[in-house]
Amino acid sequence: DTEVTQTPKHLVMGMTNKKSLKCEQHMGHRAMYWYKQKAKKPPELMFVYSYEKLSINESVPSRFSPECPNSSLLNLHLHALQPEDSALYLCASSQTGTALRGQYFGPGTRLTVT
Amino acid sequence: TQLLEQSPQFLSIQEGENLTVYCNSSSVFSSLQWYRQEPGEGPVLLVTVVTGGEVKKLKRLTFQFGDARKDSSLHITAAQPGDTGLYLCAGATGNQFYFGTGTSLTVIP
């Protein structure tokens, strides 16, 4: 099973809402990632969890809060977002935090902030 | 600073043509990967290369890692409409992982 699943597929939220994005993998990978992607641009790294510990936080605003409940699950909690946060949010996993053998991506959550 | 530069940025070709996408850097990478992403979906890993000079083939796609492990190329033979998408190279070094700037390919039937 090389699948990374993400829910929901689409999300529309107002600037005062609180919502969460969920990601799950069952490949035994020990690193998981959150990316933000704008149209036809490369993904921008937000957070990296390695062995369930936050190892990289790329200066992301505090309105984005990651959580890794266990080695298979990754959440991204959203609060008081801005319209410019509208984007495709991608979750990925890799065997280890060095991603030498590549990353496996989920289908993404299309987020629209109104 | 963008470590990995891809060229061209956009490419529109007719079905049946050949094309090459380049991924260049001044940095050395332990491994380099290529991904294809279709609209509204996540990137899909196509190949990983780890040895300088390595060549890998995946049906009509040929991937090459430069001898110095600083650059890579993706060659597609007889492009088909199903090849349309965003092609991304990505390099791994140490505990860092960098995506290239991306190449948007459109194959016209």
Layout of strands and helices, then pairs:
The complex is a heterodimer of chains A (114) and B (109).
Chain A: E1 4-7, E2 10-13, E3 18-25, E4 31-37, E5 44-50, E6 53-57, E7 64-70, E8 73-79, E9 87-94, E10 104-105, E11 109-113
Parallel strand pairs in A: 2-11
Antiparallel strand pairs in A: 1-3, 3-8, 4-5, 4-9, 5-6, 7-8, 9-10, 9-11
Chain B: E1 5-7, E2 10-14, E3 19-24, E4 31-37, E5 44-49, E6 55-58, E7 61-65, E8 71-76, E9 85-93, E10 96-99, E11 103-108
Parallel strand pairs in B: 2-11
Antiparallel strand pairs in B: 1-3, 3-8, 4-5, 4-9, 6-7, 7-8, 9-10, 9-11
Written overview of the protein:
- The complex is a heterodimer of chains A (114) and B (109).
- With 114 residues, chain A is mostly beta strands.
- Chain A is 0% helix and 56% strand.
- Chain A has strands at 4-7, 10-13, 18-25, 31-37, 44-50, 53-57, 64-70, 73-79, 87-94, 104-105, 109-113.
- In chain A, the strands form 2 sheets. In chain A, strands 2, 4, 5, 6, 9, 10 and 11 form a 7-stranded mixed beta sheet that branches.
- In chain A, a hairpin with a 6-residue loop joins strand 4 (31-37) and strand 5 (44-50).
- Chain A starts with a strand and ends with a strand.
- The model of chain A has no long low-confidence stretch (mean pLDDT 93).
- In chain B, the strands form 2 sheets. In chain B, strands 2, 4, 5, 9, 10 and 11 form a 6-stranded mixed beta sheet that branches.
- In chain B, a hairpin with a 2-residue loop joins strand 9 (85-93) and strand 10 (96-99).
- By secondary structure, chain B is mainly beta.
- Chain A binds chain B through residues 4, 6, 40-43, 45, 50, 55, 88, 90, 92, 97-108, 110, and chain B through 30-31, 33, 35, 40-45, 48, 50, 86, 88, 90, 92, 94-95, 97, 99-102, 104.
